[in-house]
Design a protein that fits this description.
- This protein is mainly α.
- The chain is built from 2 helices and no strands.
- The mean pLDDT is about 60.
Length: about 25
């Protein structure tokens, strides 16, 4: 799951996705 979060953070995805990653417990 951590890899997925990092991948999403690296990828230039919409803000809604970034918000989801921020909500995820690191």
């Amino acid at each position: 799951k951590l890899q997925n979060i990092l991948y999403a953070a690296i990828q230039p995805e919409p803000k809604y996705k970034l918000r989801r990653t921020n909500s995820a417990p690191f």
